[in-house]
Amino acid sequence: MRTALTFAVSAALVAGTALGLAPAAQADSADTVRFVDIAGDGGTVLKANVVTPAGAAAGARYPVIVLPTSWAMPQVEYLAQAKQLADSGYVVVSYNSRGFWQSGGEIETAGPKDVADASLVIDWALANTPADPAKVGMAGVSYGAGISLLVAAHDKRVKAVAALSGWADLIDSIYSGRTQHLQAAALLGGAGYLTGRPGPELQQTLKDFLSSNLDKEDEMIAWGRKRSAATHLDALNANRPAIMLGNAWGDTIFPPNQFASFYEKLAGPKRLEFRPGDHATAEATGLLGLPNDTWTSAHRWFDHYLKGVDNGVDREQPVRLKPRSDAGYEGYPDWTSVNANRREIPLGGSEHLWANVDSGADGGVVLLSNLLDQFFQAPPAVSVPLLPRAFAGVWQSERYATPQRVRGTARLHTTVTPTAESGTFVAYLYDVGPLGIGKLVTHAPYTFHDRQPGRPFAVDLDLFSTAYDVPAGHRLALVVDTVDPLYIEHNPTGAQLTFSSPAADPSHVSVPLRSE
Fold first, then answer.
1. Which helix H or strand E contains 208, and what residues bound it?
2. Greatest extent of the chain over all pairs of C-alpha atoms, in Å
3. Cα–Cα distance, 498 to 223 (Å, whole number)
4. Cα–Cα distance for residue pair 108/223, rounded to 1 Å
5. For the segment 279-324, what is each residue's pLDDT rounded down to a tens digit?
6. Can you tell me the distance from the alpha carbon of 370 to that of 376, in angstroms, rounded to the nearest whole number?
7. Residue 173: which residues within 8 A CB-CB, separation 6 or more?
């Protein structure tokens, strides 16, 4: 079942890429584009393309932006954006990350060789194009974003970064709540096999991850930490590149929490932008050369920090959020301010659940569900009154007389008593209308191991950050169950979970609300 899912979603991804990007590549081919080979780490050939400003004067120097491709994407991915950047005075070098498509080597998953490759691409650009060595930037979507942040920590020449739909903490992305994000890992692994050559380390890590090999958990975490910019925060803060982070609220591969946490710890110039959508969908139209808010912000970021343009980007509120509604952008001085105003919903009583049965409360399907929410405001939905109470715990707030503008990270605090030493549950926050239909606001999984059966323990769980407007006359509902197709669950057959609210430590969900 997992194998079928892997190849089905991967095939769809690759087919969509090929069909969607072909027109942009053909349109750009008449411009000043060169396709070149660049020697990466160990002499590995990296297939690349270079776009330079038309009519460049002899001896002129231009800011340069290096773009590593996204996971499984061909080297034409950024050509539309590269042309726009070149038209405004940049040298742009985009290359296929090692192990993918026609580039040599094996997939290292943002390992040391990928970091070394990017630095060698910068070397090549400075030696073979009119690139200014004092004005080097990096950008990318997804895999390209992760690599760009890591390179900025290791190469002081990188002065500005636009990391879009990427990760700062790989473990917190696909192993949050100590739970394997099944569909995300299957998608990435399957796409890697279809479009590239996974190295032995990646193959073993995927095998251990998807088979829930807890004996290798520490090794897998160490593998992920090495590939996370958050691990290299001290080096980044010493180099102080200007970093713009952009992501989607519903990113099912790299959820927004890890970017927000990373942003707060950055010491240099920084900007954080969240928009509706799923993984890379907020940037997708820009890759086709169409108007796109995310890429417009990235261009402004580079214009200021590489070209010195006084466009005001440094004076704007650095945290910029677009709610999952028709509302416009909101500005905040920092991420802490987003979460400053909170309301608690008490979770009284006791709920006793039988595990291993999907109640119908689910987080959706990777890439698809939050794409529907982005364009049609149609998140996953469920009839809350009809949820089977043997398999789902349900608590509801009062009906709100005024709109409730959820902004930031909702936090669950509860007490769990298991009948087995291991288990998994998923917490969902729903916007419930008058007819009982709940639209998913946010959710998050939680897994535990080595607990004493029958002994209660406290759980604190951050749900995935979001910006959602609950209409007047609706209520919020917190639902927990034990199965979600997005994740691998660890509930033994016949296991049960009890959620309680001790008088000395009452359970609640703390919901961040925008101050009016």
1. helix 200-210
2. 77
3. 35
4. 11
5. 999 999 999 999 999 999 999 999 999 999 999 999 999 999 999 9
6. 10
7. 167, 181, 184, 253, 254, 255, 258
